[in-house]
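Q: Please design a sequence for this.
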């Protein structure tokens, strides 16, 4: 997911809350998202409204395993 936080920074956050970052420009956020998704444009979703970077959510073990498997397939 790509969008802006309440302070105007560009945010990238994966759906499992395991990977993400804050960026100054949309281009840098998109570049990071594309790299992390294995250059799959369909995996990068622009979020309307506000999105806040959150690493505090605790995905269950299945989510973590599924995220790892997805990353390995993309590599």
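A: Design:
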């Amino acid at each position: 997911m790509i969008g802006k936080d309440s302070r105007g920074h560009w945010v990238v956050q994966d759906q499992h809350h395991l990977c993400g970052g804050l960026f100054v420009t949309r281009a840098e956020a998109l570049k990071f998202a594309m790299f992390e998704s294995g250059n799959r444009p369909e995996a990068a979703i622009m979020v309307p409204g506000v999105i806040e970077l959150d690493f505090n959510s605790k995905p269950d073990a299945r989510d973590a395993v599924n995220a790892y498997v997805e990353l390995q397939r993309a590599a």
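Q: Thanks. Anything notable?
A: The helical segments are 26-36, 61-74. The chain is about 35% helix and 20% strand.
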